[in-house]
Amino acid sequence: MSKNLEEAIAGSRRRFLTACAGTLAIAAGGLARSAFAKPAAASAERSLSFYNLHTGERLSATYWENGKYILESISEINFLLRDFRSGEVKPIDPRLLDLLHQVTRRLETTNPIHLISGYRSPSTNAKLHANDSGVAPHSLHMDGMAADIRIPGRDLRQLLKAAMATRGGGVGYYPRSDFVHVDVGRIRHWAGTT
Q1: Buried-exposed string 95-111: b where 16+ CB fall within 10 A, e elsewhere
Q2: How many CA atoms lie within 13 A of 92 on its CB side?
Q3: Percent of the chain residues past pLDDT 70, beyond the cut
Q4: 52, 90, 113, 180: most buried by Cβ count inside 10 Å?
Q5: pLDDT tens-digit profile of 25-61?
Q6: 180 near 174, Cβ under 8 Å?
Q7: What digits encode the pLDDT tens for the residues 126-156?
Q8: Torsion over CA: 110, 6, 9, 72 (sign)
Q9: What is the pTM of this model?
Q10: Could you tell me if 128 and 161 are in contact, meaning their C-beta atoms sit under 8 angstroms apart?
């Protein structure tokens, strides 16, 4: 982990952990009912690696082990997936982490997930929506339930197929912008124009 990331997390760790604990408690019931939770539950641990394309930060973290989420790792992931424009951090829905874990397992890769967009503050989302009608006015990014990603070493169509196979939520295909949108909302799929 980078020194800057460590310092930023250390400065507000209690706030992150408190927010994460509430999010985890709420999401825990939904995990048992989700279509992708059973395969993820079969693994002994769940880990993710990220590279934030906007900040240059990298993170590899085991976020679930011995049947429970690791709050310190989740807070580090929350920070990395923050709104890079405003710096605002919001707890990321653990179901999204499990979905990303399932996608990387399906792709049989340990390459880091390249993050284009994670959490978006309402003001950031409003600005993006004003410039691009393809951005939803109330995007699931604002709820910490969506990420726009690519994975080096895997074709975008492979990523699309793996994400759709999880049946864990929405999947958007944006080949011109070179990313796939994944979320833990209702199951649906679409092709974007941007």
Answers
A1: bbbbbbbbbbebbebee
A2: 28
A3: 77
A4: 180
A5: 444 434 433 434 444 445 689 999 999 999 999 999 9
A6: yes
A7: 898 788 767 787 899 999 999 999 999 999 9
A8: positive
A9: 0.79
A10: no
Contacts of 160 (CB under 8 A, 6+ apart): 171, 173, 180
Report the C-alpha gap between 141 and 125 in whole angstroms: 8
How far, in Å, CA of 143 to CA of 120, rounded?
8
Looking at residue 21, what is its pLDDT? 47
Q: Residue 5: which residues within 8 A CB-CB, separation 6 or more?
A: 57, 59, 76, 79, 80
Residue 99 belongs to what H/E stretch?
A: helix 94-106
Q: What are 144's two structure tokens? A: 């910490």
